[in-house]
Amino acid sequence: SKPLSIPMGPLSPINDLAGVLIQQYSNDLEETLEMIFQQELAEAKLGGLEKVRSFINGWAHSKDYVYRLEAISTETAGKLLQGEFTTMDSLLNYDSNTESFNKNITILYRIIKNKNRNTPCEIIETLYINK
User: Fold this and answer.
1) Are 110 and 66 in contact (CB under 8 A)?
2) In terms of C-beta distances under 8 Å and separation of at least 24 residues, what long-range contacts does 110-116 make, across chains too?
3) For 7-65, what is each residue's pLDDT tens digit?
4) Is the pTM of this model over 0.85?
5) Measured CA distances, 3 to 8, 15, 21, 74 (Å)
6) Cβ atoms < 10 Å from Cβ of 77
């Protein structure tokens, strides 16, 4: 987003500079929040599935930090690792049609916005084997 220019006579260059500085500060703040979030998520991952579940349920999600956990069958996980799914929808649809009641794998995935296509994009981050 471009800073709005408000005519202020001789102070107009100062106003333009202030707009640029505020935009830079906003970008820096977003990057810092992303780094903090990723660090805290990495620490939760070290603690296992329940720590991750607690972290993502406790984090005040914004449009930039949407994470989900999904239990899937071993059969579905095998097909995932073989690259047989191109979307999360196809993976989840396949898994819902399997007759396995043993969903002992949990996937952590992130939903981000593809800025080029203006569509959501899911990225699988971690697979957990439930004991």
Assistant:
1) yes
2) 110/65, 110/66, 110/67, 111/66, 111/67, 111/68, 112/64, 112/66, 113/63
3) 555 556 666 666 666 777 666 777 788 888 889 999 999 999 999 999 988 876 566 66
4) no
5) 14, 9, 10, 51
6) 19
